[in-house]
Each structure stands twice: as structure tokens, then as C-alpha cells.
Amino acid sequence: MSDPLHERDQAAAALDLVNRAAGPYLDGLADRPVHDRSLDGLIDELDGPLPVKGDGTLAGVERLLRVGTEAATHSSGPRFFHLVVGGSTPAAMAGDWTASLLDQVTGLWVTSPLAARVETIVLGWLKEMFGLPASYGGVLTPSATFAHVTGLACARQWWAERHGVDVVSEGLAGLPRMPVFSSGLVHASTRKALQVLGCGRDTLRTFSRDEGGRLDPAALEAALEALGGAPAVVVANLGDVNTGDSDPIAGMADLAERYGAWLHVDGAFGMFAALSPRTAHLARGVERADSVTADGHKWLNVPYESGFSFVRDPAVMGRAFGSWGSAYLPDGGPGEINYNMLGPESSRRARAFPIWATLRAYGREGHREMVERHLDVAAHLALLVERAPDLELLAPSRLCITCFRYRPPGVPENRLDDLNARLGEALLADGRVYAGTSTYRGMTVFRPATLNWRTTEADVELLVEVLRELGARLTAG
Ligand SMILES: *Cc1c(COP(=O)(O)O)cnc(C)c1O
Questions:
Q1: Of 64, 142, 143, 394, which has the fewest CB atoms closer than 10 Å, so is most exposed?
Q2: SS3 346
């Protein structure tokens, strides 16, 4: 085989292969282990020298599907509790396939008014869901990390302008370090964004009043006051990865206002607290932030990759990311938004389609119900942990996260970290259920996150069962 032009009549047949694999794959997700290491060897079938003559469309796709459906980590199934990972609702997945089918050049109005308008539509819907003013600017990003880069680049632009410097043309040279303050709940990706932006990851200072990383508001205020009126950036965290805990956003918004600071909110998954009356109070104050980060591939249950950045003053986005200065890139006319001038990407896919599809299919109510089911599942897990004599709950379940460790009677405290780390490895090797470990208040802990639309109480019951079974085996041996 050679030139794909000779195979143009195979395009629909190739997609039909994917379609026929999809049913059995998706139906099987509930029953299969999250990962079966004995199947990793199959990946060899994708290796080898670059083919000189290709296999042809159907044979190539067939091989990828055969290996992929077996050797994949089935993280879109109901028992992947590692990191903070959502699934993909049926409508979102179909919307994502549509994005591939239509393959829109997304970023400039002229190349796809369809993709640009749908991006505007979903950003409007998301602002409404999150309680953000409609006047906020926004852009879809690949992830929360990229949304941080977007929001913090806007913060940096604003901050440098306050020092009389246009950082887009002049860079950071000659400026002092940009002060960035947060609590100990801050996520590693905030530092990564600061490092990418040339601000330096260590410019971030955290003010915590306890080992769990919760904010010390007085210390934050003292740091802001000590700047003597110089501008600063405050990062508030809505939903942390260890326990789901949140900073007092409204209080931080008060401080930011009082000291003229830029308030950036990391609501990667926590932003979805705004959907339920049970948790909406946690998000109060977000509507006063200067920039807000959230993810689509987490609690919205849209496939990877999907994130969003919102910025109070849309003009700052244009200053931070426009100014291409390239004659072949057309400006948009009135009402024609070029989204690649509002964020770090140039070429991009129609990331809005899966978001549109899931919001259109299930609406605000459907997504609220899903979020509330996950609150219940996390609470159920906390109850199971409390009842188990060999498990220790370390924080109340908050949002979709439950933090605990394995603590069988008789094992001394100084051996627990090692035991939990080994149990974590055993859990991943077992593969029936996936959850990762972290460090919380100096302890090695499990912090499963339950935010996949497929996940129910039975799935966390299996997590507890498998952990206790493997734990008993480790302590017996
Ligand atoms: C996951 C997460 C991030 C980073 O998100 P990506 O989409 O992986 O870039 C940032 N902050 C918090 C609180 C997160 O949970």
C-alpha cells in the first residue's frame, strides 16, 4: 500500500471498525480490571521499524484497535480512582468523534466560524453553570495546567503593566520577581505554569496555619501589606487533590480587593461544586476572581484533553496572547472571535464539540445529579473506611475525594508509611481497582477521587475490599 489517495473509499469503513469495537469495549468496562499487566506485552505488536510499504487503511486500524482495546489502562471505566480523572459521557464521546470527523481548524474565525461560535456558546454555558459574570472573557485550553498558563500570563501582563512594562514585547528582564501568594493547598501545576512563564516556580509563597496546608489568612494579609502597595497575585484553591479541601475564596477575594492584588482561582475539579446547592457555598467569591481555571476532562466527564480559562477583563487576554505581528494571520471582523489570540495555542481542535454535546444532552440538571452522586459515593467510601478496623479516615470526604490510610492494629506508627506505599504498589499491580498514594500531614495516604459518571457505590466497596485483602496479605507475609 502507499498513497492514501488510493484508499479514499476506505474512510468510512475504517471508522466503522472503530464503531464496531466501541460497543463491546464500552460494555465491558464495568467488568474488566482497570489494568492487566499481563497484556502489556501486546504493545510489542505496535513496535518495529517504520513501515516502508504500509499495511493499508483497514489492516492498520484493525491492529491499533486489537492491541489498544486490550492493553489500554481502562481509566474511562468506573474504578479508576488515581489522580483526578473523569470519564467520558456517551454524548461527550460522540461529540469528540464529531470533532475528529469534521477536523476543524479551530482558532481563527475565517477557518471555522462553526468552531469559533460553538466555543463562544459553551464558554457562555460554563460561565452560567459556575456563576461567573457573562462579561468574563474565556478560552478553551487542553488542560488546567494550560488554563493556569493562560490566567497567570494575564496576571503577569497586568502586573508588569503596573510596573510600566509591556512584558509581551519587553520580557521580564529588569522587573522584580512577581509576588505570588497561596495556601498549602496549591497544586503543583500552578508552580509549573509560573516556571513556564519565566516567573520562576519558587516565587510562589504559601501561608498555612496547619500541616494540612489550610490558609493562614493573617499571614497572607501581612505579606500583602508588606508589599507597600506593589501589585501581587493571590492564588485561591477550590478543591485540593489530597482531601478535596478548599481555601476561603470569598475571604481571599476581600483581601485581593483591599490590597489591589490579582486573584487567580484554581478550580480544576472543584469549580463543579458550584453545580450543587450542597457545595455551592465553597465556590462563593469565584465571581470576583480576575482569572479562573477549570477542567473539562475531570468533573465534566469530557474526554481528554479539555480545560477552560476565564478572565475578568477580556482585553488583558488580547494583550497577553494577541499581537502575533504576522501578516498572513487575519484579524477577525466585528463579532468574529479568533480564539488563538486569547490563549497560548495556535492550531487547535474543536474542543468545544464534546462540551457542547454533553451539556446539550444532559443539561445543568443532569450534570448536577452526577456531581451529587459522586458526593454520595465519596461519603459512602468514608463511611466504609470508618467502619473498617484496619483503615483510618484522615479527613472528612470533601467533594469527590476521600483521604485515608491502611492501619492494621499492632503495626507501629513508624512502619505505616512504608506499609501504605507497598500497598499502593500492590494495588496497581493487582489492577482490579486503581488508586494512588500521596503525602498528607506527613503521612503516606490513599486519596481516591470518584468522579467518573459510571462510578457507583459498589465500585468503592470493591476498592475497600481489595485494599484490605492485599493489606492482610502484606502484613501476614
Ligand atoms: C488536575 C489538577 C490540575 C492540573 O490539571 P491538568 O488538567 O492535569 O493540567 C490543577 N489543579 C488541580 C486542583 C487539579 O486537580
A1: 64
A2: coil
Q: Is 406 helix (H, G, I), strand (E, B) or coil?
A: strand
Closest atom of ligand 1 to CA, residue 269: 15
- Indicate which atom in ligand 1 lies nearest the CA of residue 145: 9
Q: Give me the helices (H) in 388-456, please.
A: 416-430
Instruction: Give the residue, out of 75, 84, 148, with the most ligand 1 atoms within 8 A of its beta carbon, to mutate for a pocket test.
Output: 84
Q: How many helices (H) and strands (E) does the chain have?
A: 13, 11
Residue 295: CB within 6 Å of ligand 1? yes
Residue among 158, 129, 127, 155 at smallest CA distance from 140:
127
pLDDT of residue 1: 62
Question: Residue 392, exposed/middle/buried by CB under 10 A (0-12, 13-18, 19+)?
Answer: middle
User: Taking a C-beta distance cutoff of 8 angstroms, is the pair 259, 252 a contact?
Assistant: no
Nearest residue to 314 via CA among 339, 349, 293, 331: 339
Alpha-carbon span 417 to 415, nearest angstrom: 6
Query: Are 95-359 and 363-476 equal in CATH topology?
Result: no
- What is the Å distance from ligand 1's center to 410 Cα? 37
Q: What are phi and psi of 238, to 5 degrees?
A: -110, 95
CA atoms of 1 and 418, how far apart (whole Å)? 55
Mean residue pLDDT of the chain comes to 96
Residue nearest to atom 5 of ligand 1 (CA): 144
Radius of gyration of the CA atoms of the chain, in A: 24
CA of 85 to the centre of ligand 1 (A): 10
pLDDT digits (tens, 9 = 90+) for 224-249: 999 999 999 999 999 999 999 999 99
Q: How far apart are CA 232 and CA 202, in angstroms?
A: 15
Question: Cα(64)–Cα(325) distance, rounded to whole angstroms?
Answer: 42
User: Cα(144) to centroid of ligand 1, in Å?
Assistant: 5
How do the domains of the chain map onto residue ranges? Answer: 4-71, 95-359, 363-476
Mean pLDDT for the stretch of residues 354-369? 98
Classify domain 95-359 by CATH architecture: 3-Layer(aba) Sandwich (3.40)
Domain 363-476 has CATH 3.40.140.10: no
Please tell me the distance between residue 331's alpha carbon and the centre of ligand 1 in angstroms: 32
